[in-house]
Amino acid sequence: MVDVAPLLAKLNTGLFIDGEWREAEGGKTVDVVNPATEEVIATVADGSAQDAQDAIEAAGRAQESWGRTAPRERAEILRRAYELIMERQDDIAAIMTAEMGKSLTEAKGEVDYGAEFFRWFSEEAARIGGDFSISPDGKSRVTVSHEPIGPAILITPWNFPLAMGTRKIGPAVAAGCTMVFKPAKLTPLTSLALVEVLIEAGLPAGVLNVVTSESASRVVSPWIESGIARKITFTGSTEVGVKLLEQAAQQVLKPSMELGGNAPLIVAEDADLDKAVAGALAAKMRNIGEACTSANRIFVHSSLVDEFARRMAEKMGAMKIGNGLEEGTEVGPLVDPKQLAKVTELVDDAVSKGATVLTGGKQVEGTGYFYEPTVLTNISDDAEITTTEIFGPVAAIYSFDTDEEAIARANDTDLGLAGYIFTENVGRANWLSERLQVGMIGLNTGIVSNPGAPFGGVKLSGLGREGGRVGIEEFLETKFVLTPRD
Questions:
Q1: Residues 300, 380: Cα–Cα separation, whole Å
Q2: Strand 394-400 relative to strand 295-301: parallel, antiparallel, unpaired?
Q3: Contact status, residue 298 vs residue 395, Cβ threshold 8 Å
Q4: DSSP 128-165
């Protein structure tokens, strides 16, 4: 068992505003709970509306000077931050596991993945380009440049507390934007550890301002209404994203929203079953199933479905459940009692409507918010699990007979973040990929996220993209200058 207490004892848990750590107004704090033990492991500052106002004003003051820094200077800060994160990979992973629940192996994987956003955007900072052309009538020169959009509001979820921060902070720093950052209330400690890394890497005062709080609206609403922010980026539920878009519209903030998912995974009749089972396991069980890219609905051709389900049940039923800080743990707890209750209700509803449980199907007795890895088949179309994002270790398997049926059922949702296809036929892969209404597809792989690729969805799964070459564009404004030709 890894002892995380010494790491937490050294961690700053206040607000970080204008380059200084400070208490929240009135000294208020909020507890952070380990979901494996249900014990309070730390308290962090519970920021107020006034604290939020102080933060956005600090970002506003710092914007002009930060926006004019050399791209190479910004790049070097990100590169140093990347190296520091990797040096502290074990410590950051332990903090993450303690507050969120995922296994140390997965937490270390997230640290590696999250750090890569800093390395990627360090390389993009010096590549912000522009354009030059002669106007069609030949009378003018057109010069196009890209400038930092200005102070940005960053709001991250609890499920990937490091990577969701670096995926937003990285391009903002590279573009020359100052920031106000609201980490998730359930997992603020990893974000605070990230702040310490950026301070050590040389990020100037006022560029990044962090306000932890029990209430997101108490902090975010003043930021949106301030008139100082020009950009908002949010990862979380569609319901909250829609509300933020409504608020942001009042100030015409540039939004990027990575919202809910209901990812289909299609196993075609010619799929390699070994690849498909391994890929589905990765797509389903990454982060205990608490991922927006998680395979929510697994559609398997009728000729393969029984064998596929048997193999999935065998593998998921053998996974070791336990405290993520213990060696060998593969499946940690869900993040809180609310999430545990949701998963329980979805499975119970499906079973009451005729679903078959091949493995799992219930909470784990004792301390902690644990749910058994579960495989369901024969699921009724009117079961709530068919249309609801599960966010837990439950594989819901459905059968189909034709590719057209698979696509129709996969697209029968108002969400469209990620999808997965398993087939050994190039023509079928192209046909399915072109028709699947999602922003990202894993073809014969269960992991779709990559810092070098644009992450985002269609329909109610959001707008804008994070990562890849387009990720920095979300933090840039376009300007052109027209000059007469002599």
A1: 15
A2: parallel
A3: yes
A4: ---EEEE-TTSSEEEEEEEEE---EEEE--SSSTTHHH
For the chain, what is the mean pLDDT?
97
Model pLDDT for residues 408-437, shown as the tens digit of each residue: 999 999 999 999 999 999 999 999 999 999
| Residue 205 token pair | 């005062």
Per the structure block, which two tokens stand in for 486? 């002599």
Mean per-residue pLDDT, 162-184: 98
Structural contact between residues 236 and 206, judged by C-beta atoms closer than 8 angstroms: no
- Residue 486 domain-assigned? no
341 & 214 share domain = no
List, by residue number, the catalytic residues. 258
Confidence (pLDDT) at 486: 82
Which residues form the domain of 156? 5-259+462-481
Going through 254-355 in order, the beta strands assigned E by DSSP cover 254-258, 263-267, 295-301
Query: Would you state the pLDDT for residue 241?
Result: 97
**pLDDT band for position 371 (cuts 50, 70, 90):** very high
User: Using CA atoms, how far apart are residues 315 and 312, in angstroms rounded to an integer?
Assistant: 5
pLDDT value at 345 more than 90:
yes
pLDDT tens readout for residues 200-259: 999 999 999 999 999 999 999 999 999 999 999 999 999 999 999 999 999 999 999 999
What kind and span of H or E run contains 232?
A: strand 231-235
Query: Tens digits of per-residue pLDDT, 383-402?
Result: 999 999 999 999 999 999 99
Tokens of 15: 């607000």
Please identify which residue in the block is written with the tokens 């609310």: 338
Q: Which residue has the tokens 């301002």?
A: 209
Give the torsion through C-alpha atoms of 390, 392, 394, 400, to 10 deg. Answer: 40
**Is the pTM value of this prediction over 0.90?**
yes
Residue matched to tokens 């982060």: 287
The secondary structure of residue 47, as a DSSP letter, is -
Same domain, 220 and 355: no
Q: Are 343 and 209 part of one and the same domain?
A: no
Radius of gyration of the chain (CA): 23
Q: 461, exposed or middle or buried, with CB in 10 Å at 0-12, 13-18, 19+?
A: buried
Token pair of 403, please? 């590719």
Residues 50 and 196 in one domain: yes
Structure tokens that stand for 201 in this block: 């890497």
The distance in angstroms from the start CA to the end CA of the chain is: 75
CATH of the domain at 214: 3.40.605.10
Question: Do 128 and 109 lie in a common domain?
Answer: yes
Has residue 456 been placed in a domain? no
